[in-house]
Design goal:
This protein is mainly alpha-helical. It has one domain. 74% of the residues lie in helices and 0% in strands. The longest helix is centred in the middle third of the chain and has 22 residues. It starts with 6 loop residues before the first helix and ends in a 9-residue tail after the last helix.
C-alpha cells in the first residue's frame, strides 16, 4: 500500500516551487475540485457570493426532506444531512453562515414533522442533537442577538411534537437563552 502524502511533505514540495508554479497548482485545484471553488468564492467573494454558496447548501438540505418535483416527503437520513453540513463547514469562512445552515436543517426537520406527522425517535434525536450543536456554536461565537428569533421559532413550531422532542427543544433554548421569555407565536 502506498504511503499517503503528509502535510509536511506537501509544504516541503510547495516551498521549492516559484510563484508562477504555485499559481498553476492552485489553479489546478480550483479547476478540478468543486469545494476549492466554493471555498474561494466564500473567501474572496462578497456577501452575495457567500449567500449563493449557502443557498446551494440549503437547497441540498431541503432536498433531503422534500422531493424537488412535487414536495412529496422523502425519508431524510441524518448521515446525509451531516455530510452536507460537514462539506459546508470546509468551505465556510464565517461562523454565522455555519449557524445559518445548521438552523435551517433543524427548521426543515420541524417543518417536515408538522407537514407529515410523527416520525421515528432516531429522527428526533438527530434533530435535537443538531439543535444542541447549533446552540453551542451560537454561544461560542456570541451570535445570540442574530439568531434568537429563529431559535425561539423552532421551539414554538415544535410544540406538541412527540418523543419528548418539544420538551427537549424548549429546555435547550432555555439553557442557551436563559434570560429570555418565549414570545407566543
Amino acid at each position: 500500500m502506498a504511503k499517503k502524502l503528509t502535510k509536511k511533505q506537501l509544504e516541503t514540495h510547495l516551498q521549492h516551487l516559484d510563484k508562477k508554479e504555485l499559481i498553476t497548482e492552485v489553479g489546478k485545484l480550483f479547476s478540478r475540485i468543486e469545494q476549492v471553488r466554493e471555498y474561494y468564492q466564500m473567501e474572496f467573494g462578497g456577501k452575495a457570493e457567500r449567500e449563493a454558496v449557502l443557498a446551494d447548501y440549503k437547497k441540498q438540505i431541503r432536498s433531503q426532506f422534500y422531493s424537488s418535483r412535487n414536495a412529496n416527503p422523502l425519508d431524510p437520513k441524518a448521515s446525509e444531512l451531516r455530510k452536507i453540513i460537514s462539506a459546508f463547514k470546509k468551505v465556510a469562512v464565517v461562523p454565522y453562515d455555519i449557524v445559518d445552515l445548521i438552523l435551517y436543517r433543524v427548521e426543515c426537520a420541524v417543518e417536515f414533522t408538522n407537514d407529515f406527522g410523527d416520525i421515528d425517535e432516531t429522527f428526533y434525536v438527530s434533530t435535537e442533537n443538531a439543535y444542541r450543536d447549533v446552540l453551542q456554536l451560537i454561544e461560542k461565537e456570541k451570535l445570540h442577538d442574530y439568531f434568537r428569533v429563529r431559535c425561539e421559532q423552532i421551539v414554538n413550531d415544535s410544540s406538541g411534537i412527540g418523543w419528548g422532542f418539544s420538551d427537549a427543544v424548549w429546555e435547550l433554548f432555555n439553557d442557551y437563552f436563559p434570560d429570555e421569555e418565549l414570545d407566543e407565536a
